[in-house]
Amino acid sequence: MMPEPIRAANGKNSLRISDGIIESVWAPGSFVDVGDARDAMRATELISQGRQMPMLSVMTDVEISAAARYEFAKSVDVLAIAVLGSSAVDRVVAAATSRDTKYPHEFFTSRPDAVAWLSGFIESPAELEPDDLEASVPTPRSR
Fold first, then answer.
1. φ, ψ for residue 11 (rounded to 5)?
2. Exposure on the CB side of residue 51, measured as CA atoms within 13 A
3. Chain centre distance of CA 133
4. Radius of gyration of the chain measured on its C-alpha atoms
């Protein structure tokens, strides 16, 4: 775990790793454009150190441009994403973002439910053979 969060998108986004999950928190009321999305994806690559990891994206009251949604969908560092929001509008934004993704994508209004779902994508080192530690891409154990 990194001691301090990484800031991205001119401070609109904060990223950290907690229990094997990238937590990406967007400031409520933010508008995310394609430049913000690219900057957040660079920060994700930096924090994940090139490994695919599950992500919890907190996007309550956040508006995302179509170009930014398309940019997020191209991410290669995300193994699965749980979008945490609190309203029907947040759910619609999450659904629009998930259209082009190649990784599992779910919307939640409960943080514990989101984290539980993402935890199914984390393999513990004990489950891997020593030679497989670097080359392994975890798959979900349960949903």
1. 85, 0
2. 19
3. 22
4. 15
Each residue of 2-60: pLDDT tens digit? 458 999 999 999 999 999 999 999 999 999 999 999 999 999 999 999 899 999 999 98
- Please say whether the beta carbons of 118 and 82 come within 8 A: yes
Contact (Cβ atoms closer than 8 angstroms) between residue 26 and residue 59: yes
> By the 8 A CB rule, do 84 and 60 touch?
yes
| 3-state percent helix, strand, coil for the chain, nearest multiple of 5 | 35, 25, 40
Strand partners, 118: none
58-113 pLDDT per residue, tens: 998 898 998 998 888 888 889 999 999 887 766 776 666 656 677 898 989 999 99
